[in-house]
From TrEMBL:
SMART domains: IG
Species, as recorded: Patiria miniata (Bat star)
Pfam families, A to Z: V-set
Xref: Gene3D superfamilies: Immunoglobulins (2.60.40.10)
Coiled-coil region: none
Top-level taxon of origin: Eukaryota
Sequence ranges assigned to domain Ig-like in this UniProt record: 30-110, 135-244
Protein name: Ig-like domain-containing protein
Length: 270
């Protein structure tokens, strides 16, 4: 098992804004989004103490004030039309329709009653969730459920493979392939994947991962798993592939199947 994992070490490409030190708040493109001012969101400044608030983008200067709150009144600034931004009851900034041009760092300035000014900032990244169902396996002819499908491989293909894809996500998702045994055990077979700009969806990414099918028996299933912060609660979503026409090796015991698999992967990637 460890030899397999050693051979298929991580070679995944990752495109995301993660190299920025700050934690990024991801908001969904085309939807309203809410950004919380750190000192206010953490409760350090009680809401009922706030007299004045300003939100700035992309810099903290008077010309970059987006919207202000002054003793109960919210007003857009610098000629920005009403309805683009708002300040809600929690003193969070509301962006009414998130698009890529909103990506960056937002600054907030708060003046509580009888206290000095407090400044904070929050970095926003635009995310685009992939449409379901995902991940998708190209060779699957039939989707049995949300997380299972059937692939029928033609007999005449010399090196059969499975290709898993998640389309049109931002930031790109990561993929891995595992073997799934009937006792529920899984074994990592590859965490290599490639990321390409999507063809039809602007500024999103398509991730794909292919594995050769080198051992097939009735007990062995292939699982493709997707992960990434863009998936939120659906992080780890997977699809389990049943390969029919398992004519390559019949009735191979599990140990033999794994051995064969690792030696083949060594030949392929090593
Ligand atoms: C949000 O903005 C995009 C790009 O300008 C536009 O296509 C879309 O219709 C807008 N959505 C809403 C709900 O206003
Ligand atoms: C304000 O914050 C509270 C707690 O974080 C949350 O439950 C509530 O939905 C928020 N209200 C608005 C208008 O954002």
């Amino acid at each position: 098992m460890s030899s397999v994992q050693k051979v298929v070490a991580v070679v995944g490409i990752r495109i995301s804004a993660n190299n920025i030190e700050d934690e990024i708040s991801f908001l969904e493109r085309g939807n309203p989004g809410i950004l919380s001012c750190p000192l206010v969101g953490s409760g350090q400044i009680p809401l009922d103490q706030i007299e004045v608030m300003y939100w700035y983008f992309p810099r903290m200067s008077d010309e970059n004030i987006l919207i202000s709150y002054f003793k109960g009144n919210v007003a857009p600034q610098n000629g920005i039309p009403a309805g683009v931004y708002d300040i809600n009851r929690n003193f969070s900034l509301v962006i009414e329709n998130v698009t890529d041009s909103y990506e960056g760092t937002y600054y907030c300035r708060v003046k509580p009653k009888l206290r000095m000014l407090f400044d904070g900032h929050v970095t926003m990244g635009v995310k685009v969730s992939p449409t379901e169902p995902f991940p998708d396996v190209t060779q699957c002819t039939q989707r049995i459920s949300e997380s299972a499908c059937e692939a029928e491989l033609p007999n005449d293909i010399e090196k059969p493979s499975l290709t898993c894809t998640v389309r049109d996500a931002k930031p790109a998702v990561a993929l891995r392939w595992l073997l799934e045994y009937s006792d529920g055990d899984t074994q990592l077979i590859s965490d290599r994947f490639t990321v390409k700009p999507s063809e039809f969806s602007v500024n999103t990414f398509t991730t794909s991962a292919s594995i050769p099918i080198v051992a097939s028996n009735v007990d062995t299933l292939y699982r493709c798993q997707a992960y990434g912060e863009v998936l939120g609660a659906r992080n780890g979503s997977h699809v389990t592939v049943t390969v029919t026409k398992a004519h390559y090796i019949h009735g191979t015991p599990r140990e033999h199947g794994s051995l064969l698999l690792s030696s083949n992967i060594t030949g392929l990637f090593g």
